[in-house]
Amino acid sequence: MTFKGFSEENLTQIRIPEQFFRQMLFEIDDLNELKLTLYIFWRLERMESPTHYVLFSDLTGDSRFVQNLESDQTTSINTLEESLHKAVMRGTLLQADLIQEDGEAKIICLNSPKGRAVIEAVNRGEWKSAVGTIPPVDIYSDHPNIFKLYESNIGPLTPMIADALRDAERTYQADWIEDAFQIAVERNKRSWHYIEAILHRWQEGGRDDRKDKQNRRDTEEARRRYGEWEN
Fold first, then answer.
1. What are the residue ranges spanned by the domains of the chain?
2. Residue 69: other Cβ atoms inside 10 A
3. Which fold has domain 146-230?
4. Which of 61, 96, 112, 197 has the CA that lies 20 to 30 A from 154?
5. CA 39, CA 11: separation in Å to the nearest integer?
6. What letter does residue 71 receive in the DSSP assignment?
7. Helix (H) or strand (E) holding 41
8. Helices H, strands E: what count in the chain?
């Protein structure tokens, strides 16, 4: 099937260090290792916790990704393990065995300052994992998570704002959150309090798309007139 091209409606960006393209891209000679490395970048970018890491069980639990490596389930897991080993030996990724009450888990991080700090803490037995308390990452959703929306449209996160965003994500549906951010941007009201007020109004009184569209048209008309007065 031929790719039809990137959509203008889905512009979510995944950050990859330029050093990857300057150095690692030319060294990786195994396609599955490259797939795994890019997948890790993508998955970590979609995480909502302050500390970004992936468990090996997260990888094996994504049947879409695993089946893309090999058609046979057993073979694909072996290929995944081999690809991870290559990436770790190359120095792109880091891994450590995390001891938990219910057993042992393999934790994977990027070889970055934060990733190295996590792996060192795990190896010293000092890592307090949030495994089991972090909601599953829906990496195939078309909706950017609320943290990315905030950073892209308002500014850097603070711990207090991050807590408020987590509460909002548990309370409101994803398309409402995305639309509320869009309305705030269109009205030049780039604040979380304004966005939260929109969501609260929709939840309490029901969402009236016709009224919201009319408000958008009124705002656009006011901007047009203001531009004419300025000229």
1. 18-123, 146-230
2. 21
3. Arc Repressor Mutant, subunit A (1.10.10)
4. 112
5. 18
6. S
7. helix 31-45
8. 12, 3
- For the chain, what's the residue count? 231
Q: Which fold has domain 18-123?
A: Arc Repressor Mutant, subunit A (1.10.10)
Beta bridge partners of 110: 93
Backbone angles phi, psi at 186, to 5 degrees: -60, -35
Residue-wise pLDDT for 85-140, tens only, equals 999 999 999 999 987 776 788 999 999 999 999 999 999 888 765 554 444 555 56
Q: Which amino acid is at 10?
A: N
- The strands making up 54-55's β-sheet, listed across from edge to edge, are 54-55, 103-110, 93-100
Residues 167-197 have pLDDT tens digits of 888 788 878 898 999 999 999 999 999 999 9
* 3-state DSSP assignment of residue 108: strand
Q: Report d(CA 136, CA 128) in Å as an integer.
A: 18
In 3-state terms, what secondary structure has residue 62? coil
> Cβ(163)–Cβ(69) under 8 Å?
no
Q: What is the mean pLDDT of residues 148-175?
A: 85
Is it the case that residue 31 has pLDDT exceeding 50? yes
Q: Are 80 and 35 in contact (CB under 8 A)?
A: no
CA distance 202 to 67: 41
Residue 226 has pLDDT above 90, yes or no: no
